[in-house]
Amino acid sequence: MQMSSKRIRIGILFHGNKIWLSEFVSIICVGLLLLTFITLSIIILQNEFTSHSNAKQITSLKSDKIHLDHKMAVLKEKNRIAHLLCKIVGSKLPAHTVFQLSELVYTNSKQYGYDPLLLLAVIRVESLFNPNAIGRFKSGNISGAMGLMQIKLETAQEMADLLNMGKLTSEDLLKPEINLVLGVAYLAKLISRFKSFKLGLLAYNIGPRAVLNNLSRNEPLSVNYYKKVLTHYYRFQEFGQQQQLTESLNTCN
What we know:
mainly alpha; Lysozyme; two-stranded antiparallel sheet; 8 helices; about 70% helix; elongated
């Protein structure tokens, strides 16, 4: 005996048209899947945008931190130079002159890649940190050297022409911001010319022509000036190390 089975299909009237329930459920499922896909796509896009925005902010913050760290390091070194100058000159110079010198020494030394303490040592030997120093020969006659770096007007004008600084006067050489720029530039030029820090420093003291004459005659050069500069340089280094040690101990405490 054969039994026939019949599938029961339930229809829904939709605007006068008959839609089977199974088809309606399928439509709903497809709609839900599409809605889920769209929602997930929007969430993914939002996350991508947020991630990209955060990455840019992180990069910017890192760049700002590097910039601030560099600024802090520069300020710290300038502050150390100022403290060192206070220790060396005591109350001989007013506070504003000390901080002006620390700024100028740092800027000009770094421009040519020198240790600021080395430039301090040269200034110490040349002028005892007196911006108004007037050089004299052993006889007592005025030598023409002026200011912190004890540079002569003729030499200073040559450097000023190279640096496009215009016409100079004797009064200009008593201004630290001018004297240091020209003096350090001249020293750097001599060191480069002789390809030796020692010979360049000696040429700064006695003149390049005198150094060349001694070298051409194979005669020994007096190195007293060179030794004086190095002595003060090493002394300033010790002061700097003591200062760093004191700061470290204060930080620990």
